Amino acid sequence: MSEWKSLLNDDPTGWLLEESDPSVRYFTLRWLMDKPEEDSQVLAASRSIAGCAPVKKILKKQRPAGYWGSDPNPHAGSRGHLLLLAWLGFKGNVASSRSMQAYLDNCITENGSYAVTLKGRTIYIPCHAAGLLRMMVWFGFAGDPRGPKILDWLLGIQQADGVWPCISKLRPFPCLWATACVLRAIQDLPGDWVTPAVEAARWQAIELFLNSGLSQYGKEKPSPLWYQFGFPLQWDTDILEVLELIAPFISPNEPRIQKDLGVVLEKQDPAGRWPREKYPKGGTWMQQYVDFEEIGQPSKWVTLHAMKMLKLLYN
Predict the structure, then answer these.
(1) Cα–Cα distance for residue pair 259/250, rounded to 1 Å
(2) Partners of 164 in the beta sheet?
């Protein structure tokens, strides 16, 4: 057994590979079993995702102009649905490409900032810029010249201590959730995008998390949501995801993670599964398309990410 699997109470991989959930099966094959995209099982899982009921429902509700709902503003009418499609592992088609194009055209300024106008005020939102950057890579827009501009804008607003600020508020403040969102985006970048400046920004953020007890930047009592696990995460995060994001760059013996690593390990059940403890922040609308796993019950998604974190940390 691999060293990281020795930390499991039991091995739930077979449960994650059930064909009834092609999305979890796809990411299990890719992340935990290191199967390449051209592997026959991975290709079959990807085809199953494209034909599954949630993806069909989402695409059926898309309007001809490329957005969802009644608001054509891509920030309101496309962002969340594209995120949900990517979370499910859908690779995209003509319809999602049309939506992505409108999203970029309407939310990214000439200098790469993510800007939207709400209630007559233009606001700039780093966490959503990071999310859009991830979707550009996922949906095949990595060649769009706006990608590097978004990345440069994000690097330019990182504070000296490594945190990214929430600059959309009337009183901007440093935000660990936004910082995790940027680390999410960086982990998925094409190799030639990962410049020394990107590496330096990532290391600053990693050290910030390590020196902040993963969740306590400027706070003695962080939000309880940091210790409640669930997926997908939008503009928020938790200690499980932070560990997953920093795991490839630290030692499992790093003293600054031991307390929170212990919290994660204690949450697994005798079968080596982790529970869902929260729904996506601001994401209850997703329930019209997907059935959320029950709060307090074993979650394939949380288990998948917990196992991925341990594999990255100990390999």
Answers:
(1) 15
(2) 175
